[in-house]
Amino acid sequence: MTAKEPCWFEAWFDSPYYHLLYKNRNEEEAGFFIDNLVKKLDLKKGAKILDLACGKGRHAIHLNNLGYDVTGIDLSEESISIAQKSENETLAFFVHDMRELYWANHFDCILNLFTSFGYFDDENDNLKTLQSVYDSLKPGGVFVIDFFNAAKVERELVAAEIVTADNTEFHISRQIKDGYIIKNIEVRKGETSEHFMEKVQLILPEHFQKWFTATGFEIMNVWGDYSLNEFNPETSARLIMSVKK
């Protein structure tokens, strides 16, 4: 019996090249977004928050610094090992699949940020994830998902580019196929090259609305940027939705 091939996100997110390509993600912007969000949601200090697909923990760490009790989970062992260096009594990180229930009726708020959704081939996995989120929240708890504005991304898709970081070249090509944005990434360093892929579903607001209704969530807000301005399908860069259990 041969070993099962890892999903693209298992191979890519655990690669050091993933962290290298995205090393310049704007920490100031992330902090700005979180600050706006906790004010808008009126989250009380000490509230229990789950950062779902937390990566290396930049949002979770900022939330903890603001006085919240934060848990971060991610499928990437590499990311979690980095995040765990920042742990304390009210900040913890674990390797966990977001499709599976983590802790029933425990969290006041769950966040899924920076397009950390839509990775699966089976739509049922999206529903499974949202059901696990619903079951993990306390009654009245809030879930916030931060996704890209799929319609705008599709219109303005950059077909190819080359990114250089630390003597490493990333040759990136993008295409839309079967309702997904597929990004092929060739990593060139010296005489060697490796290939990776990102594959994210183009999810429109109405898709999320259908899934939230099926799961039992009540939609509260739909924002279009990290200043939390109203969502505009033509111009907004982001699709940020808050829903209540």
CATH top level of the largest domain is: Alpha Beta
Tally of alpha and pi helices: 8
Number of E-type strands: 11
Number of domains: 2
Q: How large is the share of residues in beta strands?
A: 25-35%
The CATH superfamily of the largest domain is identified as: Vaccinia Virus protein VP39
Distance N terminus to C terminus? 44 Å
Can you give a write-up of this model?
By secondary structure, the chain is α/β, with parallel strands linked by helices. Helix content is 30%, strand content 34%. The model is unreliable at 1-5 (pLDDT under 50).
Task: Quickly list its features.
about 240 residues, alpha/beta, Rossmann fold, 7-stranded mixed β-sheet, 4-stranded antiparallel β-sheet, disordered N terminus
